[in-house]
Amino acid sequence: MLAFKEVLLSVPIAAITKNFGMCVLALCLGFFSARTHLLWVATTGFYLYKKGINVMTDNVDRSKRRLLLAATTAAGGVAAAGVATPFVLSFMPSERAKAAGAPVEVDISAIAPGTMKVIEWQGKPVWVVRRTPEMLSLLSKHESELTDPTCSVPQQPEYCQNANRSIKPEIFVAIGICTHLGCSPSFRPEVAPADLGANWGGGWFCPCHGSRFDLAARVYQGSPAPTNLIIPPHQYLSDNLLLIGDDKKKGVA
Ligand code: FES
Q1: CA distance linking residue 12 with residue 4, whole number of Å
Q2: Cα 177 to averaged position of ligand 1 atoms, centre (Å)
Q3: Domain boundaries, the chain
Q4: For 217, phi and psi rounded to 5 degrees?
Q5: Is 37 a catalytic residue?
Q6: Stretch (H or E) spanning 215
Q7: Which SS3 state, helix, strand or coil, does residue 235 take?
Q8: Of 46, 47, 32, 45, the residue nearest 1 (C-alpha)
Q9: Which of 55, 106, 241, 242 could anchor a disulfide with 237, C-beta 3.0 to 4.6 Å?
C-alpha cells in the first residue's frame, strides 16, 4: 500500500529536481511492493545519486546542489524512521502485557474461614486462604517433618518469614505452583483423610508426583518439590482489600 510519506516527499523532490519521472517511478514501485519504505528509499536514493554526479560534473549553481542534498537527507531520514519504527515498537511491551503483570486487588471479605479463593496474577494462580484458629494451631505440630520449617530459603518476602508465613496470621497468600515441575497442587484442608494418612494436618497435595505442603505451603520432607511454595509480594489496602503483586503502595499494615 502506498504510504502517505512517499507522496508527501516526492512532491518537493520533484519540484526541486524538476524531474518528475523518477519520482513517479518511485511511487509506482512503492505501490506494488510490500517493502514500500525500503524500495522508495532505494529508488529515490539512486536517482539522487545519479543527479549528484551530474551536479558535480555540470556547471550547476551551488544553491541548487545544497537544496538537492538537503532533500536527500530529509527524505532518507524520514523513510529510515518509517522503516525503523515498527521494529522498535515490536520490542516494547504491549498494553495487554503490561496489564497482565500489573498488581491485582482482591476483596477477601467473602472468604469464609477454612476456605480458599484463587485469583490470577501474572498468569499464575494465587491462593488466598482464611485459616481458622485450629488450622493455625496445627502449623507448629509437624515442623520436624518439613524440609525448611523456618523458611530460610527466600521463597517469601521478609515480612512473611515468620511462623505463619503471612502478614496477618489468618490470611495466607501463596502462588499455587508446585516448586517441583510446576503443577498446581490441590487444596486439602481436611485433617487425616483416608488417602493422605493419619498424619495429614491439612494443606496442599500435588497430584503430579506426590509433593505435600502444609497450611503455610511449606514442603514436607520426602517430597520431590525442593522448596516451599512462593509467597508473592502483597499488602493490605484496607482490612478487606488485598493488593497482590505490590507491597510498596500506601496502605495499612
Ligand atoms: S510438579 Fe508437583 S510434585 Fe511434581
Answers
A1: 14
A2: 9
A3: 4-90, 98-244
A4: 60, 35
A5: no
A6: none
A7: strand
A8: 32
A9: 241
Report the chain (253 residues): mean pLDDT per 10 consecutive residues.
53 57 54 53 61 54 68 64 62 61 94 97 97 96 95 97 96 98 97 92 96 98 98 96 89 53
**One-letter amino acid identity for 208?**
C
* Assigned superfamily of 98-244: Rieske [2Fe-2S] iron-sulphur domain (2.102.10.10)
Which atom of ligand 1 lies nearest, measured to the CA of 183? 1
- CB under 8 A, 24+ apart: contacts of 28-36: 30/2, 30/3, 30/6, 31/1, 31/2, 36/1, 36/2, 36/3, 36/6
What amino acid is encoded at 45 in this protein? G
DSSP states of 35-69 as a string?
Answer: SHHHHHHHHHHHHHHHHHHHHHHTT--HHHHHHHH
| Predicted pLDDT at 249 | 72
pLDDT at position 70? 72
Question: Whole-angstrom Cα distance, residue 243 to residue 232?
Answer: 10
Q: How far is the CA of 114 from the centre of ligand 1 (A)?
A: 24
